[in-house]
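Duplicate of #3305? Posting structure anyway:
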């Protein structure tokens, strides 16, 4: 059994695509809010807040205890003349409750989606709006963000709208860019899936049969080529129409239900499993023969119509092989943008139609095609393994949303390790399915694909012990569902050994006196006995006075990842020594609710609003100056507020952080020469 070099390349690309990719953005907005108003009676309405949460992120609950992350808070503008509340705010989505070892508290959060509602009694007949803001914190395994969104529900008007936050234009533009980037990746992924579909047993042998039809008809050479072009265009049209129907019937309004409700996600999981077993040869998914016969009858009429119906016949006949791949693309796109199913089907059909059209135009190329054989079934089986692995994602979404607890992270990883290990043994010829031919020898392409597969398996294994597996984190359940996290156990031990005073690992570190009493030091502090400031201007003035670079720590009270950095990296004696000796340290808390004296208020250059609290002032400062809204975020500046080294974020390797500090200090000293 031979696996051609081209086949190996296509399957390798498909496996790499499925392993996940990451797109980075500076100003992140992982929680998308939408608002609706439901009329209960002429004098009572219900306002509803819907939050859609990006994969891997979580939104904290509304009733967190003190000393933990920031609760999601709904602030209604008081207007007792026009309305009053008819009840408390009700979370319609059940929050996950879990003990957090870092904060030593039981915390609640939402994953995937959340919904909140509140009933309002109307006291006035005139037009007015129920206004307010939502303040919330969201985190993933790498970083946290603080954000605020405004809402406005018009009352006694026919149109219901919501006012977006002032910075919505920037965030929306970024989201649009990410969406376009995501569509390009999805187009590429769908194109590769179309190439993979060609290498299946019920499609590949049809290439020479199709070419023979065009070349043996009673048409001239140019008429035959015209029919070939119509044939290819018809394949693209048929599949794109399928995508358009899905987009119209399952468009954006349906997306939230599709992406969060247990029913569609469990259904999609079952579909993927059924498709996988179909590829394994357990059964075939075949359309009714009457459909194929009726389409085939139209082919004999010839002309452009005949070419179209021949394309339709190909689509119907090949459904047992292409159906699972087409279904996977449509399922992947059903809960997203309305363009995604159309783009997906266009990309798939373009790749699928390309060889049929090209070989019909240039039939002499047929001599270079590999012979049909058992290798085609091997392609199907490999695709079956991949579909089985990806299907778990949908069951995981339902499991996270409804907190069933049946597919925690380590269970999910165990399934993937077994699935891809079996796929590797299959590629080596150690497993055999019903329709497989005997593997007499191992081709180079098959061996290389097996090496890639087993490498991926080895990469997955540390994840069973708490490794973050960043490359595929978007496909995995959150780390909070992982029971045996060796990294967390070691971190807790380090925290017990470490000290919150100036002694670290038994070593007394050199202290330094501050230029003046830090603002807000009565309620803010730095970890591990560090001395520093909590106001940027005060810290910058001191840095100039003592001739040291300024180290900025953008942090938050409820930033889990900030606490991880402090526990794992800042606790290192080498890091603490450098921070105490070589830098003026300032911690800027972006979530502190303390109202500043009016003299310290600032008007944002970013959203033009007046910032009255410590948190809002420094959150705005981070976005306006550095274009970032995530924490932790570490910056080293000179006395002219210029960057000395590229800022860094969460990285639990102390050596990397030491290199960051040393590079900044070196740049500062060289600039002073």
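Output from current build:
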């Amino acid at each position: 059994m031979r696996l051609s070099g081209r086949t190996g390349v296509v399957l390798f690309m498909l496996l790499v695509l499925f392993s996940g990719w990451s797109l980075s953005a500076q100003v992140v907005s992982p929680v998308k809010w939408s608002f609706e108003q439901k009329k209960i009676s002429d004098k009572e309405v219900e306002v509803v807040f819907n939050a859609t949460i990006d994969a891997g992120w979580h939104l904290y609950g509304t009733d967190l205890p003190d000393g933990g992350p920031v609760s999601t808070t709904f602030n209604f503008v008081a207007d007792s003349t026009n309305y009053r509340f008819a009840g408390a705010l009700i979370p319609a989505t059940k929050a996950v409750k879990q003990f957090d070892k870092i904060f030593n508290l039981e915390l609640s959060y939402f994953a995937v989606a959340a919904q909140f509602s509140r009933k309002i009694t109307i006291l006035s007949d005139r037009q007015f709006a129920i206004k307010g803001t939502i303040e919330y914190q969201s985190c993933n395994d790498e970083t946290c963000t603080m954000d605020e969104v405004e809402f406005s529900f018009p009352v006694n008007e026919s149109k219901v709208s919501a006012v977006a936050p002032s910075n919505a234009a920037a965030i929306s533009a970024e989201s649009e860019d990410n969406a376009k980037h995501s569509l390009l990746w999805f187009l590429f992924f769908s194109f590769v899936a179309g190439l993979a579909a060609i290498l299946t047993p019920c499609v590949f042998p049809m290439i020479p049969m199709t070419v023979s039809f065009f070349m043996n008809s009673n048409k001239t050479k140019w008429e035959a080529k015209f029919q070939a072009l119509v044939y290819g265009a018809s394949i693209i049209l048929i599949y794109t129409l399928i995508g358009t129907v899905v987009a119209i019937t399952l468009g954006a309004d349906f997306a939230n239900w599709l992406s969060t409700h247990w029913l569609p996600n469990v259904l999609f999981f079952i579909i993927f499993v059924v498709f996988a077993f179909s590829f394994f040869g357990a059964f075939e998914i075949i359309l009714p023969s009457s459909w194929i016969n009726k389409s085939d009858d139209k082919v004999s009429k010839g002309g452009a119509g005949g070419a179209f119906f021949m394309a339709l016949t190909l689509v119907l006949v090949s459904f047992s092989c292409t159906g699972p791949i087409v279904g996977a693309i449509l399922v992947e796109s059903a809960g997203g943008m309305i363009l995604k199913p159309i783009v997906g089907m266009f990309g798939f059909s373009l790749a699928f139609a390309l060889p049929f059209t090209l070989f019909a135009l240039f039939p002499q190329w047929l001599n270079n095609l590999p012979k049909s054989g058992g290798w085609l079934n091997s392609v199907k089986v490999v695709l079956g393994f991949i579909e089985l692995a990806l299907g778990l994602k949908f069951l995981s979404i339902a499991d996270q949303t409804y907190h069933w607890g049946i597919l925690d992270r380590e269970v999910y990883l165990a399934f993937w390790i077994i699935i891809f290990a079996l796929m590797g043994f299959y590629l080596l010829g150690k497993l055999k399915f019903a329709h497989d031919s005997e593997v007499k020898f191992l081709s180079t392409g098959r061996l290389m694909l097996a090496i890639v597969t087993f490498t991926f398996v080895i990469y997955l294994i540390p994840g069973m012990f708490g490794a973050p597996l960043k490359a595929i984190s978007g496909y995995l359940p959150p780390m909070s569902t992982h029971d045996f996290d060796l990294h967390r156990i070691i971190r807790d031990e380090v925290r017990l050994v470490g000290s919150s005073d100036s002694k670290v690992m038994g070593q007394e570190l050199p202290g330094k006196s501050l230029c003046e009493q830090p603002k807000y030091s009565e309620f803010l502090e730095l970890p591990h006995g560090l001395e520093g400031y909590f106001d940027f201007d005060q810290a910058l003035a001191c840095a100039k006075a003592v001739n040291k670079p300024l180290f900025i720590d953008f942090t938050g009270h409820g930033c889990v990842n900030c606490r991880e950095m402090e526990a794992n990296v800042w606790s290192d004696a080498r890091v603490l020594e450098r921070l105490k000796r070589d830098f003026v340290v300032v911690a800027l808390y972006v979530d502190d609710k303390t109202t500043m004296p009016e003299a310290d208020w600032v008007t944002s250059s970013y959203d033009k609003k007046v910032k009255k609290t410590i948190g809002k002032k420094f959150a705005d400062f981070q976005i306006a100056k550095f274009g970032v809204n995530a924490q932790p975020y570490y910056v080293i500046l000179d006395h002219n507020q210029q960057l000395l080294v590229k800022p860094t974020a969460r990285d639990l390797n102390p050596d990397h952080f030491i290199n960051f500090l040393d590079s900044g200090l070196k740049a500062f000293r060289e600039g002073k020469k």
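Confirmed duplicate; merging threads. Residues 1-25, 158-179, 251-256, 498-512 have pLDDT under 50 and may be disordered. Residues 359 and 365 are 6 Å apart (CA to CA).
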